[in-house]
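Slack export, channel: ligand-projects

TW: morning all. Re-posting the request from yesterday since it got buried. We need the structure predicted with the small molecule present, not the apo form. The ligand is flavin mononucleotide; the SMILES is in the block with the sequence. No rush, but it would help planning for next week.
GE: picking it up
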Amino acid sequence: MLRGKTVLLGVSGSIAAYKTAYLASALKKLNADVHVLMTKNATNFINPITFETLTGNKCLVDTFDRNFEFNVEHVSLAKQADVVMIAPASANVIGKLAHGIADDMLTTTVMACKCRKFIAPAMNTNMFENPVVQDNLEILRGYGYEIITPAVGYLACGDTGAGKMPEPALLLEYILRDTAYEKDMEGLNVLVTAGPTQEPVDPVRYITNHSTGKMGYAIAQVCMRRGANVTLVSGPSMLEPPQFIDFVPVTTAKEMFNQVTERSADQNIIIKAAAVADYRPKNISSEKVKKKDGEMALEMERTDDILAWLGSHKRPGQFLCGFSMETENVLENSRKKLRKKNVDMIAANSLKTEGAGFGGDTNVITIITEDGEVSLDKMTKEEAASKLLDRIMERYN
Ligand SMILES: Cc1cc2nc3c(=O)[nH]c(=O)nc-3n(C[C@H](O)[C@H](O)[C@H](O)COP(=O)(O)O)c2cc1C
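GE: finished. pasting the full C-alpha coordinate output, ligand included:
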Protein backbone atom coordinates (compact mmCIF):
# COMPACT_ATOMS: atom_id res chain seq x y z
CA MET A 1 0.00 0.00 0.00
CA LEU A 2 2.95 2.33 0.62
CA ARG A 3 5.21 1.00 -2.14
CA GLY A 4 7.29 3.85 -3.55
CA LYS A 5 6.64 6.09 -0.54
CA THR A 6 9.35 7.37 1.78
CA VAL A 7 8.38 7.85 5.41
CA LEU A 8 10.66 9.66 7.88
CA LEU A 9 10.15 8.81 11.54
CA GLY A 10 11.65 11.16 14.10
CA VAL A 11 12.22 9.68 17.57
CA SER A 12 13.10 11.85 20.57
CA GLY A 13 13.91 11.23 24.23
CA SER A 14 10.70 9.84 25.70
CA ILE A 15 9.86 6.53 27.31
CA ALA A 16 7.28 6.08 24.53
CA ALA A 17 10.11 5.61 21.98
CA TYR A 18 9.71 1.81 22.09
CA LYS A 19 6.23 2.11 20.57
CA THR A 20 7.73 3.65 17.44
CA ALA A 21 9.44 0.32 16.71
CA TYR A 22 5.96 -1.18 16.11
CA LEU A 23 5.11 1.72 13.82
CA ALA A 24 8.35 1.34 11.84
CA SER A 25 7.68 -2.38 11.47
CA ALA A 26 4.06 -1.86 10.34
CA LEU A 27 5.16 0.73 7.75
CA LYS A 28 7.85 -1.58 6.42
CA LYS A 29 5.30 -4.41 6.08
CA LEU A 30 3.22 -2.08 3.89
CA ASN A 31 6.33 -1.68 1.68
CA ALA A 32 7.25 1.89 2.67
CA ASP A 33 10.88 3.00 2.56
CA VAL A 34 11.26 3.92 6.24
CA HIS A 35 14.09 6.11 7.59
CA VAL A 36 14.39 6.72 11.31
CA LEU A 37 16.06 9.83 12.72
CA MET A 38 16.83 9.78 16.42
CA THR A 39 17.99 12.43 18.84
CA LYS A 40 21.04 11.46 20.85
CA ASN A 41 18.87 11.38 23.98
CA ALA A 42 16.42 8.98 22.30
CA THR A 43 19.22 6.40 22.02
CA ASN A 44 19.03 6.09 25.83
CA PHE A 45 15.52 4.68 25.43
CA ILE A 46 15.84 2.44 22.37
CA ASN A 47 18.87 1.28 20.41
CA PRO A 48 19.24 2.47 16.78
CA ILE A 49 19.99 -1.13 15.82
CA THR A 50 16.34 -1.99 16.53
CA PHE A 51 15.19 0.50 13.89
CA GLU A 52 17.96 -0.45 11.47
CA THR A 53 16.92 -4.10 11.65
CA LEU A 54 13.23 -3.31 11.26
CA THR A 55 13.62 -0.84 8.38
CA GLY A 56 16.74 -2.07 6.55
CA ASN A 57 18.01 1.53 6.55
CA LYS A 58 20.69 3.23 8.58
CA CYS A 59 19.24 5.01 11.60
CA LEU A 60 20.56 8.57 11.61
CA VAL A 61 21.57 10.28 14.84
CA ASP A 62 24.65 12.39 14.11
CA THR A 63 24.53 15.21 11.53
CA PHE A 64 28.31 15.10 11.15
CA ASP A 65 28.65 11.32 10.80
CA ARG A 66 31.42 10.73 8.18
CA ASN A 67 30.52 7.09 7.63
CA PHE A 68 28.16 7.36 4.65
CA GLU A 69 28.13 7.65 0.85
CA PHE A 70 28.62 11.25 -0.07
CA ASN A 71 25.51 13.35 -0.21
CA VAL A 72 24.24 15.87 2.25
CA GLU A 73 22.11 13.32 4.05
CA HIS A 74 19.63 15.55 5.84
CA VAL A 75 18.83 17.43 2.63
CA SER A 76 18.59 14.36 0.40
CA LEU A 77 16.32 12.56 2.87
CA ALA A 78 14.16 15.64 3.26
CA LYS A 79 13.72 15.78 -0.53
CA GLN A 80 12.77 12.11 -0.76
CA ALA A 81 10.24 12.21 2.07
CA ASP A 82 6.52 11.87 1.32
CA VAL A 83 5.58 12.26 4.96
CA VAL A 84 7.31 12.91 8.29
CA MET A 85 6.12 11.80 11.70
CA ILE A 86 7.87 12.75 14.92
CA ALA A 87 6.73 10.21 17.47
CA PRO A 88 7.35 10.53 20.32
CA ALA A 89 7.94 14.28 20.17
CA SER A 90 9.55 15.51 23.40
CA ALA A 91 8.81 18.96 24.85
CA ASN A 92 12.38 19.82 23.91
CA VAL A 93 12.07 18.86 20.21
CA ILE A 94 8.70 20.64 19.99
CA GLY A 95 10.31 23.80 21.39
CA LYS A 96 13.27 23.57 19.02
CA LEU A 97 11.15 23.08 15.90
CA ALA A 98 8.80 25.90 16.89
CA HIS A 99 11.72 28.32 17.20
CA GLY A 100 13.91 27.31 14.30
CA ILE A 101 16.63 25.54 16.26
CA ALA A 102 18.25 22.87 14.12
CA ASP A 103 21.12 21.52 16.22
CA ASP A 104 20.83 17.78 15.53
CA MET A 105 20.00 15.39 12.70
CA LEU A 106 16.29 15.16 13.53
CA THR A 107 15.54 18.88 13.79
CA THR A 108 17.82 19.76 10.83
CA THR A 109 16.17 17.21 8.52
CA VAL A 110 12.61 18.04 9.58
CA MET A 111 13.25 21.71 8.92
CA ALA A 112 14.41 20.87 5.40
CA CYS A 113 11.21 18.88 4.68
CA LYS A 114 8.44 20.41 2.58
CA CYS A 115 6.06 17.44 2.82
CA ARG A 116 3.30 16.81 5.36
CA LYS A 117 4.60 16.75 8.95
CA PHE A 118 2.95 15.13 11.96
CA ILE A 119 3.92 15.65 15.58
CA ALA A 120 2.85 13.16 18.25
CA PRO A 121 3.69 14.80 21.59
CA ALA A 122 4.43 12.43 24.46
CA MET A 123 5.20 13.65 27.94
CA ASN A 124 4.06 13.99 31.53
CA THR A 125 0.69 15.74 31.90
CA ASN A 126 2.13 18.76 33.69
CA MET A 127 4.73 19.19 30.96
CA PHE A 128 2.08 18.84 28.25
CA GLU A 129 -0.23 21.34 29.93
CA ASN A 130 2.60 23.82 30.48
CA PRO A 131 1.68 27.00 28.56
CA VAL A 132 5.13 27.06 26.95
CA VAL A 133 4.53 23.64 25.36
CA GLN A 134 0.97 24.59 24.35
CA ASP A 135 2.20 27.85 22.79
CA ASN A 136 4.91 25.98 20.90
CA LEU A 137 2.36 23.50 19.55
CA GLU A 138 0.20 26.42 18.43
CA ILE A 139 3.19 27.93 16.64
CA LEU A 140 3.85 24.62 14.89
CA ARG A 141 0.18 24.38 13.83
CA GLY A 142 0.60 27.82 12.32
CA TYR A 143 3.58 26.53 10.31
CA GLY A 144 1.42 23.72 8.91
CA TYR A 145 2.40 20.84 11.19
CA GLU A 146 -0.46 18.52 12.19
CA ILE A 147 -0.42 17.90 15.93
CA ILE A 148 -1.81 14.53 16.98
CA THR A 149 -3.73 14.85 20.24
CA PRO A 150 -2.08 12.71 22.93
CA ALA A 151 -4.14 10.01 24.57
CA VAL A 152 -5.32 10.31 28.17
CA GLY A 153 -4.35 7.54 30.54
CA TYR A 154 -1.82 6.11 32.94
CA LEU A 155 1.63 7.52 32.17
CA ALA A 156 4.98 5.84 32.72
CA CYS A 157 5.82 8.42 35.41
CA GLY A 158 2.86 7.18 37.50
CA ASP A 159 0.54 10.15 36.79
CA THR A 160 -2.77 9.83 34.98
CA GLY A 161 -3.80 12.41 32.42
CA ALA A 162 -3.14 13.74 28.91
CA GLY A 163 0.30 13.18 27.42
CA LYS A 164 0.36 9.53 26.37
CA MET A 165 1.59 8.82 22.88
CA PRO A 166 -1.29 7.28 20.87
CA GLU A 167 -0.94 3.62 19.93
CA PRO A 168 1.10 2.82 16.79
CA ALA A 169 -2.07 1.65 14.93
CA LEU A 170 -3.56 5.15 15.19
CA LEU A 171 -0.29 6.84 14.17
CA LEU A 172 -0.16 4.49 11.18
CA GLU A 173 -3.68 5.50 10.19
CA TYR A 174 -2.64 9.19 10.11
CA ILE A 175 0.13 8.25 7.68
CA LEU A 176 -2.13 6.05 5.54
CA ARG A 177 -4.84 8.70 5.37
CA ASP A 178 -2.27 11.19 4.18
CA THR A 179 -0.15 9.09 1.88
CA ALA A 180 -1.63 5.74 0.81
CA TYR A 181 -4.06 6.90 -1.90
CA GLU A 182 -4.66 9.67 -4.41
CA LYS A 183 -7.38 11.99 -3.06
CA ASP A 184 -9.82 11.40 -5.92
CA MET A 185 -12.84 11.35 -3.57
CA GLU A 186 -11.97 14.63 -1.85
CA GLY A 187 -15.08 16.44 -0.67
CA LEU A 188 -17.54 13.65 -1.58
CA ASN A 189 -20.04 12.51 1.03
CA VAL A 190 -20.18 8.73 1.09
CA LEU A 191 -22.48 6.61 3.21
CA VAL A 192 -21.61 2.93 3.71
CA THR A 193 -23.67 0.33 5.53
CA ALA A 194 -21.96 -2.73 6.98
CA GLY A 195 -22.37 -5.73 9.21
CA PRO A 196 -25.40 -7.83 10.07
CA THR A 197 -28.55 -6.71 11.82
CA GLN A 198 -29.98 -8.41 14.89
CA GLU A 199 -33.73 -8.96 15.10
CA PRO A 200 -34.92 -9.71 18.64
CA VAL A 201 -37.15 -12.73 19.14
CA ASP A 202 -37.71 -12.02 22.80
CA PRO A 203 -35.70 -10.17 25.48
CA VAL A 204 -33.02 -12.89 25.38
CA ARG A 205 -32.71 -14.23 21.82
CA TYR A 206 -32.25 -12.71 18.39
CA ILE A 207 -32.01 -13.69 14.72
CA THR A 208 -28.95 -12.57 12.75
CA ASN A 209 -26.63 -13.70 9.94
CA HIS A 210 -22.93 -14.45 9.46
CA SER A 211 -21.86 -10.98 8.26
CA THR A 212 -18.83 -9.63 10.16
CA GLY A 213 -18.75 -6.18 8.54
CA LYS A 214 -15.26 -6.68 7.09
CA MET A 215 -16.20 -5.75 3.50
CA GLY A 216 -18.17 -2.63 4.45
CA TYR A 217 -15.54 -1.47 6.94
CA ALA A 218 -12.84 -1.89 4.27
CA ILE A 219 -14.90 0.20 1.82
CA ALA A 220 -15.46 2.93 4.41
CA GLN A 221 -11.76 3.00 5.27
CA VAL A 222 -10.59 3.22 1.65
CA CYS A 223 -13.15 5.99 0.91
CA MET A 224 -11.78 7.94 3.90
CA ARG A 225 -8.18 7.40 2.76
CA ARG A 226 -9.18 8.66 -0.71
CA GLY A 227 -10.44 11.90 0.84
CA ALA A 228 -14.21 11.31 1.20
CA ASN A 229 -16.33 12.36 4.19
CA VAL A 230 -17.56 8.97 5.29
CA THR A 231 -20.54 7.89 7.36
CA LEU A 232 -20.51 4.21 8.32
CA VAL A 233 -23.85 2.84 9.54
CA SER A 234 -22.98 -0.50 11.05
CA GLY A 235 -24.84 -3.37 12.61
CA PRO A 236 -23.18 -5.20 15.54
CA SER A 237 -19.59 -6.10 14.61
CA MET A 238 -16.48 -7.17 16.49
CA LEU A 239 -14.34 -4.84 14.33
CA GLU A 240 -12.87 -1.57 15.55
CA PRO A 241 -14.60 1.30 13.75
CA PRO A 242 -12.21 2.89 11.23
CA GLN A 243 -10.62 6.19 12.28
CA PHE A 244 -11.64 9.56 10.83
CA ILE A 245 -15.19 8.60 9.89
CA ASP A 246 -18.64 9.31 11.29
CA PHE A 247 -19.63 5.99 12.91
CA VAL A 248 -23.30 5.22 13.49
CA PRO A 249 -23.90 1.94 15.34
CA VAL A 250 -27.31 0.28 14.96
CA THR A 251 -28.79 -3.07 15.92
CA THR A 252 -31.99 -3.81 13.99
CA ALA A 253 -32.93 -3.50 10.33
CA LYS A 254 -35.43 -0.81 11.30
CA GLU A 255 -32.73 1.27 13.02
CA MET A 256 -30.44 0.87 10.01
CA PHE A 257 -33.26 1.89 7.69
CA ASN A 258 -34.02 4.98 9.78
CA GLN A 259 -30.36 6.09 10.07
CA VAL A 260 -29.69 5.58 6.35
CA THR A 261 -32.84 7.21 5.03
CA GLU A 262 -32.40 10.19 7.38
CA ARG A 263 -28.93 10.88 5.94
CA SER A 264 -29.39 9.79 2.34
CA ALA A 265 -30.28 13.18 0.81
CA ASP A 266 -26.84 14.63 1.65
CA GLN A 267 -24.84 11.78 0.12
CA ASN A 268 -23.05 11.72 -3.23
CA ILE A 269 -22.43 7.98 -3.09
CA ILE A 270 -24.22 5.29 -1.06
CA ILE A 271 -22.83 1.78 -0.80
CA LYS A 272 -24.95 -0.83 0.90
CA ALA A 273 -22.66 -3.61 2.04
CA ALA A 274 -24.67 -4.61 5.13
CA ALA A 275 -26.32 -8.03 5.23
CA VAL A 276 -29.67 -6.89 6.59
CA ALA A 277 -31.95 -9.67 7.76
CA ASP A 278 -34.87 -9.90 5.28
CA TYR A 279 -37.31 -11.00 7.95
CA ARG A 280 -37.90 -10.29 11.61
CA PRO A 281 -40.09 -11.99 14.19
CA LYS A 282 -43.47 -10.35 14.29
CA ASN A 283 -44.21 -10.66 17.99
CA ILE A 284 -41.32 -9.63 20.17
CA SER A 285 -42.16 -10.92 23.62
CA SER A 286 -41.69 -14.18 25.47
CA GLU A 287 -45.41 -14.75 25.95
CA LYS A 288 -46.21 -14.26 22.29
CA VAL A 289 -43.69 -16.81 21.02
CA LYS A 290 -46.01 -19.70 20.36
CA LYS A 291 -44.90 -23.12 21.39
CA LYS A 292 -46.40 -26.22 19.76
CA ASP A 293 -45.29 -29.61 21.03
CA GLY A 294 -42.24 -28.04 22.63
CA GLU A 295 -41.21 -26.31 19.37
CA MET A 296 -40.95 -22.61 18.87
CA ALA A 297 -43.18 -21.19 16.15
CA LEU A 298 -42.32 -17.71 15.04
CA GLU A 299 -44.48 -15.52 12.90
CA MET A 300 -42.18 -13.49 10.64
CA GLU A 301 -42.62 -10.26 8.72
CA ARG A 302 -40.46 -8.61 6.08
CA THR A 303 -38.03 -5.89 7.10
CA ASP A 304 -37.84 -2.64 5.10
CA ASP A 305 -35.85 -2.96 1.87
CA ILE A 306 -33.20 -0.24 2.32
CA LEU A 307 -31.75 -0.57 -1.19
CA ALA A 308 -35.18 -0.40 -2.86
CA TRP A 309 -36.05 2.70 -0.80
CA LEU A 310 -32.76 4.37 -1.77
CA GLY A 311 -33.34 3.48 -5.45
CA SER A 312 -36.81 4.98 -5.45
CA HIS A 313 -35.60 8.16 -3.66
CA LYS A 314 -32.36 8.60 -5.63
CA ARG A 315 -31.34 12.26 -5.93
CA PRO A 316 -30.06 13.62 -9.25
CA GLY A 317 -26.38 12.69 -9.62
CA GLN A 318 -26.41 10.36 -6.62
CA PHE A 319 -24.64 7.02 -7.13
CA LEU A 320 -26.06 3.91 -5.54
CA CYS A 321 -24.21 0.60 -5.17
CA GLY A 322 -25.56 -2.52 -3.50
CA PHE A 323 -24.04 -5.88 -2.64
CA SER A 324 -25.71 -9.09 -3.55
CA MET A 325 -24.90 -12.32 -1.77
CA GLU A 326 -26.34 -15.25 -3.65
CA THR A 327 -26.07 -19.02 -3.44
CA GLU A 328 -27.12 -19.67 -7.06
CA ASN A 329 -27.72 -17.82 -10.36
CA VAL A 330 -25.52 -15.06 -8.98
CA LEU A 331 -25.28 -12.93 -12.12
CA GLU A 332 -28.87 -13.36 -13.24
CA ASN A 333 -30.29 -12.52 -9.82
CA SER A 334 -27.93 -9.58 -9.39
CA ARG A 335 -28.85 -8.13 -12.78
CA LYS A 336 -32.55 -8.39 -11.89
CA LYS A 337 -31.84 -6.59 -8.61
CA LEU A 338 -29.98 -3.80 -10.45
CA ARG A 339 -33.04 -2.98 -12.58
CA LYS A 340 -35.78 -3.68 -10.08
CA LYS A 341 -34.25 -1.53 -7.35
CA ASN A 342 -32.97 1.24 -9.64
CA VAL A 343 -29.34 1.04 -8.46
CA ASP A 344 -26.26 1.97 -10.51
CA MET A 345 -24.04 -0.93 -9.55
CA ILE A 346 -24.24 -4.30 -7.87
CA ALA A 347 -21.20 -6.03 -6.39
CA ALA A 348 -22.14 -9.69 -6.54
CA ASN A 349 -20.49 -12.47 -4.61
CA SER A 350 -21.37 -16.09 -4.35
CA LEU A 351 -21.35 -17.87 -1.03
CA LYS A 352 -20.20 -20.97 -2.94
CA THR A 353 -16.99 -19.42 -4.29
CA GLU A 354 -13.80 -20.24 -2.38
CA GLY A 355 -12.34 -17.06 -0.82
CA ALA A 356 -15.61 -15.08 -1.09
CA GLY A 357 -18.34 -14.03 1.29
CA PHE A 358 -18.75 -13.69 5.04
CA GLY A 359 -16.00 -13.53 7.60
CA GLY A 360 -12.80 -14.11 5.61
CA ASP A 361 -10.21 -11.50 4.68
CA THR A 362 -10.65 -12.02 0.92
CA ASN A 363 -13.49 -11.65 -1.52
CA VAL A 364 -14.27 -12.55 -5.13
CA ILE A 365 -16.72 -10.06 -6.59
CA THR A 366 -18.31 -9.37 -9.93
CA ILE A 367 -19.16 -5.74 -10.56
CA ILE A 368 -22.39 -5.42 -12.52
CA THR A 369 -23.64 -2.25 -14.18
CA GLU A 370 -26.23 -1.58 -16.88
CA ASP A 371 -23.54 -1.75 -19.56
CA GLY A 372 -21.82 -4.98 -18.52
CA GLU A 373 -19.91 -6.78 -15.85
CA VAL A 374 -16.32 -7.17 -14.64
CA SER A 375 -15.17 -10.13 -12.59
CA LEU A 376 -12.38 -9.49 -10.12
CA ASP A 377 -9.95 -12.18 -9.01
CA LYS A 378 -9.72 -13.28 -5.39
CA MET A 379 -8.11 -10.45 -3.43
CA THR A 380 -8.12 -8.92 0.04
CA LYS A 381 -11.28 -7.08 1.01
CA GLU A 382 -9.31 -3.83 1.03
CA GLU A 383 -8.06 -4.42 -2.52
CA ALA A 384 -11.58 -5.39 -3.61
CA ALA A 385 -12.90 -2.19 -1.99
CA SER A 386 -10.33 -0.14 -3.86
CA LYS A 387 -11.17 -1.74 -7.24
CA LEU A 388 -14.88 -1.28 -6.60
CA LEU A 389 -14.31 2.40 -5.82
CA ASP A 390 -12.23 2.80 -9.00
CA ARG A 391 -15.25 1.55 -10.97
CA ILE A 392 -17.64 3.80 -9.04
CA MET A 393 -15.43 6.84 -9.64
CA GLU A 394 -15.22 6.06 -13.39
CA ARG A 395 -19.00 6.26 -13.52
CA TYR A 396 -19.74 8.91 -10.90
CA ASN A 397 -20.70 12.27 -12.47
C1 LIG B 1 13.00 8.21 32.06
C2 LIG B 1 12.79 9.49 31.31
C3 LIG B 1 11.63 9.65 30.58
C4 LIG B 1 11.40 10.83 29.90
N1 LIG B 1 10.23 10.97 29.17
C5 LIG B 1 10.00 12.11 28.53
C6 LIG B 1 8.82 12.26 27.78
O1 LIG B 1 7.97 11.37 27.69
N2 LIG B 1 8.63 13.43 27.12
C7 LIG B 1 9.52 14.46 27.18
O2 LIG B 1 9.27 15.50 26.55
N3 LIG B 1 10.66 14.32 27.87
C8 LIG B 1 10.93 13.18 28.53
N4 LIG B 1 12.09 13.05 29.25
C9 LIG B 1 13.05 14.16 29.26
C10 LIG B 1 13.78 14.26 27.96
O3 LIG B 1 14.44 13.03 27.66
C11 LIG B 1 14.77 15.40 28.00
O4 LIG B 1 14.04 16.62 28.03
C12 LIG B 1 15.74 15.40 26.85
O5 LIG B 1 16.56 16.53 26.93
C13 LIG B 1 15.02 15.41 25.51
O6 LIG B 1 15.97 15.34 24.49
P1 LIG B 1 15.60 15.28 22.97
O7 LIG B 1 14.44 16.14 22.78
O8 LIG B 1 16.79 15.76 22.25
O9 LIG B 1 15.32 13.85 22.65
C14 LIG B 1 12.35 11.87 29.92
C15 LIG B 1 13.52 11.68 30.64
C16 LIG B 1 13.75 10.51 31.33
C17 LIG B 1 15.04 10.33 32.08
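GE: first-pass observations. The longest strand covers residues 319-326. The chain has two domains: 6-179, 189-396.
TW: perfect, thank you
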